[in-house]
Amino acid sequence: MAESMKNYHDSLKEALEDSFLRKTLDTFAVQYKVNRANIFADMNATELINEIADHKDKAMLKLDELYQQFVEQASKKGLHIHRASTAQEANDIICNIAKENNVKKIIKSKSMTAEETHVNHALEANGFEVVETDLGEWIIQLRHEGPTHMVMPAIHLSRYQVADTFSEATKQDQDSDIGKLVKVARYELRAHFADADMGISGANFAIADSGTIGICTNEGNGRLTTTLPRVHVAICGIDKIVPNIEDALRIIQVLPRNATAQAITTYVSWISGSSNCEINSDKRKIFHLVFLDNGRTSLLKDPKCGQALRCVRCGACANVCPVYRLVGGHKMGYVYIGAIGLILTYFFHGHDRAKNLIQNCINCHACKDICAAGIDLPGIIQEIRARLVEEEGSPISSTLLAKVMTNRKLFHTLLKFGKFAQKPMTSGKFVRHLPTIFAGDQSFRSLPAIASESFRDRFAKLNASAQGTPKVGIFAGCAQDFVYPEQLESAVKILQAKGAGVAFPYEQSCCGLPLQMMGEREAAKKTAKANVDAFSNSNVDYIVTLCASCASHMKDHYTELTGDDPSYKDKTAKYLSKLIDFSSLAKNVLKVTEDDFINRGAKVAYHSPCHLCRGLGVTKEPRELIGLAGEYVPTAEEDVCCGFGGTYTMKFPEISSTVLALKLKNVEEGSKDGIKPELLVTDCPGCIMQLRGGEHKHGDKVKVQHISEFLGHNLKSK
Ligand code: SF4
Ligand code: SF4
Q1: At what angle do helices 45-61 and 63-76 cross, to 10 degrees?
Q2: pTM of this prediction?
C-alpha cells in the first residue's frame, strides 16, 4: 500500500533527527568530492562518461542480438541461462535451482539485482538458509534492513550499532573497535563459506562476444561465493549486457572512481563458463545465470526515460545529492537509492511506491553533473512527475496555479492585488507574519514582500533607450518582475552605461518552471509559447535573464515544450540562440572592466546557483565580476544547492531549511584563511529569496545581493 505523504514527512523528520546519520553523510559528501576530483585529476572524465553513454545506448538498441550472442557463447562453456520477466519469476527460477540440487545453505555476495527481487525472502520462505557474506550486507541482514547506499549498504550505521548487532548475533559482547568487528564477521562467516552448497552473486557485466560475466568487488567474499560452493547462480539485469570486454573496461575506468574515488576495486573477477568442481559427479561446477527483465525492456522503448538503463550502479548520484545527504537511502529510494533510485522505483517497483519519493528532488542537477553514464536524471524525474499528474490528476493547488499562470493578465492582476492584501502583514521588504496555515512550515526564513511597483510598471519611467549596441531584451521572470524589480533596474543601468539598447516586451510571462516542476505539462507548454511569441517581433540581439533557473529551464525544455506546433520550430530556435544569463552578458558581451566600477574593497562571498553552474555551465564569469568591484572571498561548497528549488521549499520545508542552514554556516565561516565576507552575492532570485530570508532570520550577519545589484551599486557614474 502507498505510504501517505504525511507519513513520508514524519519519516523524513525522524531521519533529520538522527545525528549520527547526518554527521556521517555530511563528512562523506564533503570528502567524496575532494577524493573524486583527485582520482580523476589526470583523466578526461567527461569524455569517458560521454563514451560510456554512447556505447550503452548502442548496446541497448541491439539488446536482443547481444542477448542471443551471449546465450550462444556462454552455453558452449556450460553456463545455463534463464531469462526472467519479473522479480517473482527470477526468484522462482533460483528457488528451483536450489531444490533441484538439494541445496540447504546458500551464501550470497553483494547484488543490487538480488535486492530488487528480494530473493532472500523467497529462498527463506522455501526453507533455505541464506547468509550474506559482504560485510555491509551481512550487517543489514542481521538487522532485517535494506541497504541505504548501493555501494556502501550499511553507511547509516555507527560502529556501536554494529557492535550491538554482532553481540546479539554471536550471543557474546563485542567490542566496537572496527578492526575487531571485521574479525568477528570474518570468523562467523568462515564456517558458512565452508559448508554452503550454493553461492549467489550479481554481475556488473555480461559480455556478449565471449559469454563471460564480470564482477567488481572490494571484499574477497565475492570470489569465495562464486568459487567454493558446488552451485553458482549469478543474477544480472538484462541491461548489463555489453558487446565486448572493451566496453566493460571503459566502464571500469569510471565506476570505482565515481563510486568511492578508487582507481579500481580490490577485485575484478571474470568468469567464463563452468569451472572444475571435484564434489560434483561430472567434476564441473553447476553454473546458472538469471537475466532479469522486470520492466527493463519496456523502459528501453521509452523515448524519454530509456536512458536510465545506461546506469552502471556507481551510486554517485546519491553521493552528491543534497537530499540524500540529509536523510539517507531509506528515505530516498525503495531498493535503489538516490536520483536513480527515485526513477527505478517508479519503473521496477510500482507507481504507488514512487509517488512521494519522486517529489523529493530539489532539481539541483548535481546528480546529472556526476553521473557515470551521463543520464539526465533530473529531466527523467520531472517527466515521471508529469506522468503521475496525468495518471492521477493534479492536486487542486496545482490545477489552480496552472490556470492562473497560463492567463498572464489574471496572473499579473492577482500579483498586484497581493501587493495590497499583504500590507497588514509586511514590514519593510519582508512579510512580517504569515497566515497560520503557512507560518509553521515556512518560518525558517523571512519571505519577501511583493514590491510596491513591479518592474513592468517601472520600466517606462526608467527612460531606457532602445537604441544602442547590442540591443538587449529583458526577460524579467516573475520573481524579479514583481518581488525584486530593483535587480532588473540595476541591470538596465549597467546595460545603458555600456551603450546597449534595452527593450522590454510586455507580453512576456512566467518562464513555466514551477509548472514543469509540478508536472503541469500543458500549462508549461502554454507559457513557453507565450514567451517565444512575446520576443519574436522585438528585434533584439540578446534576451537576458537575471534568473539562472528561468534560463536553464528555457534552454532545456522550450524546444520540446513548443515542439508540438511546427510553426514554433524556427521561432523557438531563434529565441534560444539569443538567450543569455546576466553574468555572461556583462562579462563576455558588454565586456565590463574594473574601470567601470568603484571598488570599495567589500569582501564578497558567492553562492553558485545550481541552474547557472550546472544547468548552464557558467562558473567563472560571476566570480570574475565580483573581483572587478570587490574582493572575492571563496567559501566552502559554493556550488551546493541553497535548498530553494521553487515549489520544493513549500513541499519539503524540513529539508529546504536544513540545506539552507548548511549553506549559511559555510558562508558565515568565511574562507579557509579566515576572511569573513560582509556580502553574499548570487545570480538567481530564487536563491536570493532563500538566502536573504534565511540571513534575515539569522540576524543579517551577511547581506545578500543579486550580482546585478552589487555591480549596479558600484557602477561609476559617467
Ligand atoms: S537533482 Fe539534486 S536533489 Fe534531485 S535527485 Fe539529483 S542531486 Fe538529488
Ligand atoms: S544513475 Fe549514474 S550516478 Fe547514479 S548510480 Fe547510475 S551511473 Fe551512477
Answers
A1: 80
A2: 0.93
